Amino acid sequence: MTPEELAQIKxxxxxxxxxxxxxxxxxxxKKAIGQIEKGQVMEVLSADEGTKRDIPKWCTKKGFEYLGxxxxxxxxxxxxxx
Amino acid sequence: xxxxLCIALFSGSVDKLTAAGVILGxxxxxxxxxxIFVLLQAAFAFKKENALTNERVAExxxxxxxxxxxxxxxxxxxxxxxxxxxxxxxxxxxxICGFAGKVWHGEKLExxxxxxxxxxxIGEYIDTAENADxxxxx
Lengths: 82, 138
Description:
Chain A is built from 3 helices and 4 strands. Chain A is α+β, with helices and mostly antiparallel strands. Chain B is an alpha/beta fold. The longest helix of chain B has 16 residues, at 14-29.
């Protein structure tokens, strides 16, 4: 999805993992994914550079749909659909 | 079938234990089955009286204070917390090597932190390592 599309997307669950280092954001995503239904959208906020690659890979392995990443000031938002 | 990770954890140093904790986090995110075999020096770190007070590092020892301060600054969980989180999220079994336990005067499971599941012999490690997808020596 494009950054414009991601800016408009309805987020069902937001996980703020900006205070944690690797593997904190990945584990926060893993914990939170159990709290949403299939088809719902989750965003993960992270300032940990490695997360940008880890979460898309994790999505592929777990069968979730990685939607894209949006850069913000000092952090980024990673979007995925369960 | 879950992938299997087998770690021969020899080190009793906070730097290597912290690295093991990070790897465990990655394994937990992927729902791997993990077996950790606590060997020699690691058994020292797993003793109840040592787990939280032990601040030894294995490498770049002249920068120990900077390293430990950085872990605090980054709010990295203590390795015992990282291990605990992984145990809560996936199937992690922590086995204390019987010989290692004895070296550090730990004869019984109660001598070690609650994360430890059992005391085993080295045959158990070989069996597990043979069937693991990933084997690490830390």
